[in-house]
Amino acid sequence: MKLICANFKMNLLKDDIHNYLNTIKGKINNKNVIFFPSIPFIEEFAKNNYLVGSQNISFKDFGSITGDTSVLQLKELGITYTIIGHSERRTFFNDSNYIAKKIKLGLDNDLKIVLCIGENLEEFEKEKTLEVLKRELDEALQDNLDIINENNLIIAYEPIWAIGTNKIPTNSCLDNTISKIKGYLKTKYNLNLKVLYGGSVNLDNIEELETIKVIDGYLVGGASLDALKFLSLINKVN
Ligand code: PGA
To answer: Sorting pLDDT into bands at 50, 70 and 90, what band is 29?
Structure first.
């Protein structure tokens, strides 16, 4: 079954979350959906028995890091997953420097990791996509090979130029890039990891995306914020 991750980013308030939970109640059966709300709402999703993850974890377990949240604190709220390396974290918080450390900390604490990788528009236009993806995979995996396996690490391929822009790569481009990611992971690291697609996934393009067989699921941002539309979207995913 495909995996669908709902990344709320820094959106929605308390009332919105309550309405959201009321709307989806009893309607997400037989689907592999994980919610990634803002930290204040994680517990609410966990209490209602949804799979829930954090959008990030700190690179340390405890200490003097003002404004960060420890993986141990997040686990107390009920997370079993975390996203690591989202492009917005890489851009605003230099997260590229902490990816390997965060993966280790997450895995040491029994979380499943959704690792985001992706090229920017300039890299895409200069045909540097694979070079970027391989580098990001190497940075994430090399120090953690002894603890990574096919059940605890999921890759999310998110071209940065496709996030929130309503543009997505062509089918053949996506098929080719995701196949190459899988091939690289298999050849270099002997890993068969699931690869999700993220970037402007919505109700208008989900049926088309579903025809691309190498995609193992989706990381959905904007289109996960409206509960009814999100329910329609997940119902189109096999
Ligand atoms: P989007 O975001 O679906 O709004 O493009 C995806 C993401 O950044 O995870």
So the answer is: confident
